Amino acid sequence: MVVSPAWMDHRFMGGAVLPAVEAMHLLAVHAGQFCSGMNGATIRQARFDKFLEIAPAMRELGAYCDMAEHSDGTVAASLLTRMKTGSAGFTRTKVHARVVFPPKTGAVESLHLPMDSAVTLKDACFHVEPERIYAELVPFGPAYRNICQPLKITDKGVLAVIQAPDDPMTGRNNPLGSPFVLDAAFQAACVWGQRFTGVVAFPVGMDQRRVLIPTIAGEDYACRVIPVRIQKALLVFDLWILDADGQTREVALGVQMRDVSGGRVKPPQWVMADR
To answer: Angle 179-197/20-34 helices, nearest 10 degrees?
Structure first.
């Protein structure tokens, strides 16, 4: 798997890590090559177990896709790496991401977010400029700085405007659309968590992702972040991504986010609401 230069801008505690959105893309593409009956635009039971770190000089990922096709037509796919440990050279397998793809056949549930819920927040909003997001809250490099207007935040959620950047790697056959859009939606949810829980949270899983119309490079999208269940140890959101015509392009439901730094990464005081 060839390393995209953009991935070097996706950072955690000073090092580059494979974005969850790219792990889903890799699994969708590779599983789809072998299991033509699966629905690659729908993901269920996603889990992002461990970061896959990317060294500065790395040109290819030493990772592979493990798949199992079940009798009901679902396909379980995992992104794995293997490494030898200890003087005896035992091989250790590490699971970085796991997803389930449903079969193409069967009824598809309609998903719709009312327009007033998608584009408005009723209470007075706290605003955060994109420059400050990427300087102090989500310190990613330029490729992943795609929230392009000030975030509007209340305790009921976030409204974000996201631009899908032009990137030569996104011209690949990607049934999930531009990976940058959902990543920016995760960032918006991360900022909400910093403000209202004092936690810098990364995505660790989601119940379901549905790509209705793939997002494309060069377009702007609106994102609505809705808190669903908020606890100190786990933040759960629904994320809705819409285009300029108000069409729902993709939905991520039951997105689970938590602090994966062991408390070492803290939000700045200025972003936190009085609690």
So the answer is: 140
Of the candidates 235, 273, 238, 270, the residue with the CA atom closest to the CA atom of residue 113? 238
* Residue closest to 106 by CA, chosen among 183, 38, 202: 38
Query: What are residue 241's phi and psi, to 5 degrees?
Result: -120, 125
Cβ atoms < 10 Å from Cβ of 181: 27
Enclosing H/E stretch for 26? helix 20-34
Cα 235 to Cα 222: distance, rounded to the nearest angstrom: 21
* Structure confidence at residue 60 as a pLDDT band (50, 70, 90): confident
Cα 98 from Cα 46, distance rounded (Å): 6
Nearest-5° angle of CA 248, CA 143, CA 100?
50
pLDDT at residue 7, rounded to an integer: 94
Those residues whose C-beta lies under 8 Å from the C-beta of residue 26, and which sit 6 or more positions away, are: 1, 63, 65, 79
| Residues belonging to the chain | 275
State how far the Cα of 130 lies from the Cα of 113, in Å rounded to an integer. Answer: 25
Query: Measured between alpha carbons, how far is 201 from 235 in angstroms, rounded to an integer?
Result: 8
Give residue-wise pLDDT tens across range 251-262.
Answer: 999 999 999 999
What domains appear along the chain, each with residue ranges and CATH number? 5-101 (no CATH), 115-271 (3.10.129.120)
